[in-house]
Design a protein that fits this description.
164 residues, eight-stranded mixed sheet, alpha+beta, single chain
């Protein structure tokens, strides 16, 4: 389990349940950047979804804090029915005001460190097909896309965890 880490003036730590409002706001700002027609209103109660992610005993939500503010966050856990050495990155967002500052790379490195400590071998994620910026980020960090189904709105990517 990652303990609070301070690197280059950043703190990487577990998100606290009391920070759910900040998490939901960051999530909305980040998602708004890759939906060309605006964020779809699909009825998801993001406050409830994030509260659940923050309190799940089988999951983790890490964040990067810069200047006293959450600048990035990552939510992951073993998906239902998957082997125990697999992990799914359900959410990974960097506040657009903090893009190109190394926040995402620092957060990704913290996730990989955590997954290695938990003896994970494979990580997967689903990224929106219109989110080219995220797809490029993941590719730079070693994620490989899987073949997509026609008409699918998400691309599945896989990451083989390096051995320590």
């Amino acid at each position: 389990m990652i303990r609070d880490r301070v690197t280059s003036g950043r703190v990487i730590r577990t998100v606290l349940p009391a920070e759910v409002e900040h998490v939901v706001a960051l999530h909305a700002r980040a998602r708004a950047t890759y939906y060309p027609g605006g964020v779809p209103q699909d009825g998801t109660d993001w406050h409830a979804a994030w509260r659940s992610a923050l309190t799940r005993p089988d999951g983790r939500v890490l964040c990067v804090v810069e200047e006293g503010r959450i600048a990035g966050l990552a939510s992951f856990r073993t998906p239902e029915g998957a082997p125990s050495d697999a992990v799914k990155l359900f959410q990974f967002h960097v506040d657009p005001d903090h893009w190109r500052r190394g926040v995402g790379s620092a957060l990704h490195a913290a996730c990989v460190e955590e997954w290695q400590a938990d003896r994970r071998r494979t990580a997967v994620l689903d990224v929106h097909v219109d989110n080219r910026r995220a797809q490029d980020f993941y590719r730079r960090h070693g994620w490989v896309p899987e073949p997509a189904e026609p008409g699918d709105h998400h691309l599945r990517m896989r990451f083989a965890l390096p051995r320590e």
